[in-house]
Amino acid sequence: MDRIKFAAVSRNYFNMPLWVAAHCGLFKDEDLDVEVELYEPIDEVSQRLEDGRVDLAFGVTEHVILDRERGGNTVIIGGNVNKLPFSLIAGKGIQEFEDLRGRTIGVSSRSAGSSSLVMKLLAANGLHYPQDYSIEEVGPILARWEKLQSGEIDAGLQGAPLNYIAIDRGYPTLCEPRETFPWFQFTSLHVDSRWAESNSDLMARFMRAFVRAHKRFFADPTGMAAIAMAETGIDRKYAQTAWDEYTRDEIFPPDGDASSEGVQALIDISALIRELPNRQGTSADDYIDRSYLCVAQAETAGE
Questions:
Q1: CB of 140 closer than 8 Å to CB of 12
Q2: Which of 7, 186, 205, 209 has the smallest C-beta neighbourhood within 10 Å, fewest atoms?
Q3: Residue ranges of the chain with pLDDT lower than 50?
């Protein structure tokens, strides 16, 4: 059995396609041992892919763009979180955007597209960074949820199903970002193009399992709830609610593909907020290589 090292962010619902492939024997069917390494600092995932410590990753999409702008070789080869599954959740006692003036917003990373998104949402409601609020890097959604509860931050994006848990516990929702930005590629499947070219057989086998995992996710709500409960510890109610949202709105892509519209939205929003004139107007498809996915889709068609 051949081993692949895979890095991903934290133990959250975003990783369901990996867990589905493992629990349902899809990696085993391809004679693969996929060793999944989970990291709280989201930058760590991309760094490990860039320096070769892992072979593949579910990483923040903007990190591929940043890497390529530095002359790197990482590329998007599949989708993951193709649309925003977040609510902007605030601490108890905060009822509107104006209440965030002078407060602290928690983000996963200043270099992640979600921080640009937060700035854009707050600017639309009269709050501008850095004069009106501060930003603190606190890690992914699990860390943001803990720090929101402890009062270390005053607001942050919470992804399904943690946003449902927060709402049920009395934390207010200031907005649903997907209503403003229907397309936004938050995380995606990444590889170093040189490693992929040198390991074409491993890539073919992994991508077949990847495509099958997405098909299984959309077809089996009961099985997916059980996997989510086992891997994340959430209650069945929240596992089912998350599955409903991820399938209804196609937050995960049914075919495993990245979204050109979502990557383009990320490029345009980050260029505007971060004042990156050289990025604005660049094409999303410059960062996406669909060749491996297309072969896997053809090979699994009709299954």
A1: yes
A2: 205
A3: none
